[in-house]
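name: query_chain
kind: protein
chains: 1
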Amino acid sequence: MSAILERMKTLAPEYVQIRRTIHRHPETAFEEKETTALVASELAKYGIEVHPNGDDTGVVGVLRGAAPGKTIALRADMDALPVTEATGLPFASEIPGRCHACGHDIHTATLLAAARLLSEERAHLHGEVRFLFQPAEENQGGARSLIAHGFLDGVDAVFGAHTWPELPGGVIGFRRGAMMAGSDAFRITITAPGGHAAHPHKTPDPIAAAAYMITELQTIVSREVAPLDSAVVTVGKMTAGTAANIIPSEVVLEGSMRYLLPETREKIHESIRRIAEGTAMALRVGAKAEIRPGCGPVIGTDALVTMAETAAARLLGREHTAELPTASMGSEDFAFYLEKVPGAFFRLGTGTDDPASHLALHNGRLLFSEDAITAGAVTFCGIAFLATGSDLSALE
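structure:
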């Protein structure tokens, strides 16, 4: 067992309690005031410089090593989801309609533990480590907030992690190439004069047009995207009508698209517009397609992914690492950091023998193995040493 892993095992109960405190008091995007205050207080205890984010929530810690080296950033997101928790845990959410069903409480506790460990190893650390405790990942605003306030300026590489129910607790997952998909949102507004349901021949029907559009949108992936490429087009919301006997004057479709390649993104954008306009013309309605750009795919730098994997293998043991076979079509605003500087993203295994630990992220019944905190903290420490040019053997 590495020295840093042995030390983390002695600290683990403390960071499990921190995770549970955050879990009880979940805060959604840009409302993470209690969590921000908790993180800032902990960082100050470790002798780490504390820098508040400029948007009320979020905080950055800065740790300078004893010798010159590179500057890197390690990131954790802190926000919860507008989801009702149904786990029955003794430390379940105390806030109705809010819970940490994506594991950001584990991310926060993990990076705090890494900050504590690295502060204790300051004498062996080179360069500078920035701990990015980010708000609002779920609405894709938090990364942009920290970037806008300059916290990525001068950073040579950035690293992040996310819980993953498909891996056993305490296992770290890696993948070269695309790790997570890019995501954009779309909205199609269909308009018509409107009329009485008893006289459908007197007005074009925007609900019928919407039904055709929903069906045709599914052919983008099945008939326009290459079979070996990965993409998703989902209509998740339809707003229409006020009464059963009225043909409405407006229908609004809202959806999400996911992709791994930039060229696929452009193809889907063009196809959504073409289908909306063409169907509208055929069925005598008006249509306006709007696309709201989100974040791009999470694609790490291969050499940095290998560095992170090496750190985990040396400090945790090779048996606690895994190669992920496929990318996830979920999205992550960590992609905004990767647009600015090179980096790598890895998975924190959170599965257990309980089937509820293998439910999808964002499910209010999902359980997480807290072994992820120890494994993630040790991995972050190893990454910090290798990426700054420090001697990893000091942690072994």
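note: DSSP finds nine helices and 16 strands in the chain.
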